[in-house]
Amino acid sequence: MKxxxxxxxxxxxxxxxxxxxxxxxxxxxxxxxEKIDIPVEQLEYYGKYKAKINIDKADFEKEQGKLILVxxxxxxxxxxxxxxxxxxxxxxxxxxxxxxxxxxxEPSLGPVFGIKGGAAGGGxxxxxxxxxxxxxxxxxxxxxxxxNNLAAAMLDNHIKQGNSLNIDPRRVTWKRAVDMNDRQLRNxxxxxxGPVNGTPREDGFEITVASEIMAVLCxxxxxxxxKTRLKRCILAYTFDNQPVTVGDxxxxxxxxxxxKDALKPNLVQTLEGTPTFIHGGPFANIAHGCNSxxxxxMALAHADYVVTEGGFGGxxxxxxxxxxxxxxANLEPYAVVVVATIRALKMHGGVVKTDLKSENLDALKxxxxxxxxxxxxxxxxxxxxxxxxxxxxxxxxEAEKALLIELCENEGYRAVLADVWGxxxxxxxxxxxxxxxxxxxxxTLAHPYDLSDSIxxxxxxxxxxxxxxxxxxxxxxxxxxxxxxxxxxxxxxxVCMAKTQYSFSDNPKLLGRPEGFTVAISDLTVSAGAGxxxxxxxxxxxxxxxxxxxxxxxIDIDSDGKITGLF
Length: 567
Description:
The protein has 18 helices and 27 strands. The chain is of the alpha/beta class and 567 residues long. β24 (518-527) and β25 form a beta hairpin. α6 runs antiparallel to α9.
């Protein structure tokens, strides 16, 4: 559990993240909006401290701010603190006098009650009210799940009511969704109980954040674009193998109605009062891992600097940010921050979690190659000015910190130590100053593949250029899916790699910087509404399970309504 510290009568008392968050007096949300010139009439209040922004009254044509992408090395159980660094960097930029906004994803209930915990930062670099963010917030997740399941219900009803579209029940690809880690629902048989209860078939659930509806919402530019994208979503195939879409069953209008409020970005604040947009939450290992285009563009229209992040490491969230989100929305970051911790780099160098408190310079040197590959990708593959943010821990020794800075400098990397977890914005001021300097340097966004490349060429270029792999292994199912994608005319779409977050490879145990590996392609699916092809590698699942001891066991609420144990 992430913790902070305070001194009471000479004794060091431990404070959890939620205790730190609950000790802060929040500012009314209209005061936060005023900081970045969002007028009160544009706010739709959800209590005192959070609001949705009416996009009908938004002005996206204002002078655009500078977009900063925060990514990280491959995550480890030691923790990297990417979201904490994103929040702390936003606070630090505000602290040094820059008009700043932050744009992040919404947390999913699955990880909150599972093993990962919430997604609102940590320590003294948090977004608040953190209880609301990590639980039901403004209801966006529920709306997305409802729209997803409405499409499923209407599809099955069409089959039951005569099936005029000639849908093959064995080729229904659309899953129902629930925002919870529940392995029991991965594979089910539905429609049992006789003809009145539907057509029996193999079925299953996805976690809501893996639903294509989530991706569609996050890439939509307005309500009309949302409805157009929903209409294109493929639900099933006919007996003669033709796609059946949401438009074919005439569900797009009702689905858009369910999503009309969810499309509006949410505005909240950090512990230090930095305006923060929290909107949309696709996973990065099974979806494209970025917050909504609307929230990002709204932040850019109202702030001089906008800090955003891509989920998990640079091989997933950052790659998809560049290749999917930036292409779709015509965005281009001014700089990239790669977050690393000495603890995590030592794990990439072979140290087990229980030994991380001990100084180990050799393991740090060995694990540095993971950071090195991520920086190389940002600089050489994507053409971005890049800075390394070393997220400091109390257990880091002076020798380890000096070695990491030296290793970075030897490669020509700009590296800055930051303790935003312990000190908030003040702990990130050096990083903020260095970043502002870097945004004045020229850069041009590049991509590892062209959209005109074949689907197979796109995949192999990501594997070779971004992951450092050698090649691909295609399953028979994936080969058939590839042919179908090309036959249906989806060859011009970008690819969205569904891969483990723990390694550059598709094997979560290959840490550091593996080379010469092949990536196993198990299947391909098309997200026609979102506008990308999902490439499934290894054993990546769209419905996570709970761990042996889920976080839910420690979460509670007292008679006064005070929540404890959230993290």
